[in-house]
Amino acid sequence: MITDILGTIGNTPLIEIKNCTTKDEGQVLFKYERSNPGGSIKDRPAIYIINEAERRKWLKPGGTIIESSSGNFGISLAMIGAAKGYRVIILVDPKTTNANLSLLKAFGAEVIVVTEQDDSGSYHKTRIALANKLAREIENSFRPDQCFNLLNSDAHYNGTACEIINNCQQGLTAIIAAVSTGGQLGGISKSLNTYMPEVQVIGVDAVGSSIFGGDSHAYRIPGIGLAWTPNNLTMNNIDCVYKITDEQAFVTARSFAKLEGILMGPSSGACALVALHLAQRLPRDKRIVCMVSDGGERYIQTLFSDEWMIEQGFSTDAGVDSLRATAAQLQPWSTDPMSISNYKPELNQNLDVPASTLCLNTEMLSDKYWNNGKHMRFLD
Questions:
Q1: Which residues in the chain are classed under CATH 3.40.50.1100?
Q2: Calpha distance 183→265 (Å, rounded)
Q3: In this predicted model, what pLDDT tens digit does every residue of 181-192 receive, in sequence order?
Q4: Which of 31, 42, 84, 125 is catalytic?
Q5: What is the CATH number of domain 5-36+160-339?
């Protein structure tokens, strides 16, 4: 089959881990999103949102795509912009790795590094506000707006969740996904709640993020966490939440590279640790699908650098015994996520969210949109 680069997005593999679990424990399957052409799960919502923007004439030939992204979503948009001929401007922050910056520039994107922290000690709000300002000033521009655009979760409802359900129905007990902009966890959880409500949906967040309440403070894990609960996430669809520390996430990602030959980033390391924890409590006939959002190549200078890990005060022990012991000691942050939601509707105005996003979200939340037959196309 002949296709262009964008036609290779999706249909990612499920990979079983074999060396970090025992023969009597639950089966862990990684949904390995590194195999997308842009190297991460963010290719899915990026192409979905751009295609919809073109269909609605929000994005026209010669236009400019402007987005706030710590790395992967921006890289996906840069790849798509190169393939489709759009100018792309990406706003990043100091946590963005040099590898990600190089990839953005390799695809021809213009990069702006936002160094002003917001009131939570992160950079999300200041990045978003500046991206919205640029979108008002630059003619023929479009803001995908991954934090507020419900097409983000819709992409996973229609795509990622369908793949999981089609390929892994027998014995499926739990799905584990990280949360940042809420897209993958929101879309997957809505699908599972509708079509396989017996499957437990587990969210993973960073210590320092307040998506699921708690104190907000700076943290090192890239691509995860916010200082508010994103619009893309319906808390009623989440069964349980874990919060993982920086050290736990980084050390776990290193461990799976060494012990299973599987490269992943820190946010996926956080999810993998929760998956191992759950597997230790389930019999072998139960399956756990864990989202692995990207590979590890983009973190060579941080995650896989002994010197960098030591500078952060992190352990470099990637042994199976210490990994399993850490997993065994995990405790849920909450088994009632709705009670700790941190929605902040005032951000729509405070961050000047584009009117097109707000209008689209109103349409998507209507019964007509969700019941018009275009959603959830399962294989025969």
A1: 5-36+160-339, 43-146
A2: 18
A3: 899 999 999 999
A4: 42
A5: 3.40.50.1100
